[in-house]
């Protein structure tokens, strides 16, 4: 990734996201880099994907729907079951159009960072987890604990499973709808749990 490109994207995010979401984006990028290092993945690519993962977060509901209409991929049922996660598939379209990102792996990581999917790629897993544990808005202590657990074989998958467990419990406690895809991914990950 070109530094100028990253600097331009950071400036756009600073101007177009809330202050908290901007800090979260920077934290996710750094967490993605750290997770990638632990997993032997391209650290700079992970950083870049983490940086842009929430690029559509502050767009209006109408803007998100318009982006989704232009998506070059077919949306799955779960991607539209909750208005709070529309920014993920819309963000993949936005990142392609606004930032001219053509790397399909990065775009896919942006698309799946909230909901996840069965058979996630390494980068999708990294961004999914980085979004949930980044230290700037989620807490440094939890971040450090989660990073240490990545040293254990199967650690990445176990941490993602823990995220799904927390999400499902939270949705049940608040009596909110659980997307069938969330249950599907949770059950899939259970088969790999150690």
Plain-language structure description:
With 194 residues, this protein is mainly α. The chain has one domain: Hypothetical protein af1432. It is 67% helix and 0% strand. It is built from eleven helices and no strands. The termini are far apart. The model has no long low-confidence stretch (mean pLDDT 93).
Radius of gyration: 16 Å
The average pLDDT score comes to 93
Structural class: mainly alpha
Helix content: 55-70%
Quickly count the helices.
Answer: 11
Low-pLDDT segments, ≥5 res = none
- The domain count comes to 1
CATH superfamily: Hypothetical protein af1432
Ends distance: 36 Å
Largest sheet, strands/sense/barrel: none
CATH second-level architecture: Orthogonal Bundle
In the CATH scheme, the class would be Mainly Alpha
The total of beta strands comes to: 0
């Amino acid at each position: 990734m070109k530094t100028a490109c990253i600097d331009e994207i950071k400036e756009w995010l600073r101007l177009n996201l809330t202050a908290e979401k901007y800090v979260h984006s920077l934290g996710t990028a750094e967490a993605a880099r750290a997770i990638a290092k632990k997993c032997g993945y391209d650290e700079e690519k992970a950083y870049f994907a983490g940086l842009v993962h929430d690029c559509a977060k502050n767009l209006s509901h109408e803007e998100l729907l318009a982006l989704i209409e232009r998506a070059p991929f077919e949306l799955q049922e779960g991607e539209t079951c909750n208005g709070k996660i529309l920014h993920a598939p819309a963000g993949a379209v936005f990142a392609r159009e606004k930032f001219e990102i053509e790397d399909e792996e990065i775009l896919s990581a942006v698309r799946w960072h909230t909901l996840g999917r069965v058979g996630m790629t390494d980068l999708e897993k990294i961004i999914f987890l980085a979004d949930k544990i980044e230290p700037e808005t989620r807490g440094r202590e939890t971040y450090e604990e989660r990073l240490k657990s990545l040293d254990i074989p199967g650690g990445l998958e176990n941490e993602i499973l823990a995220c799904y467990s927390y999400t499902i419990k939270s949705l049940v406690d608040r009596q909110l709808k659980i997307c069938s895809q969330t249950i599907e991914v949770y059950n899939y990950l259970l088969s790999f749990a150690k």
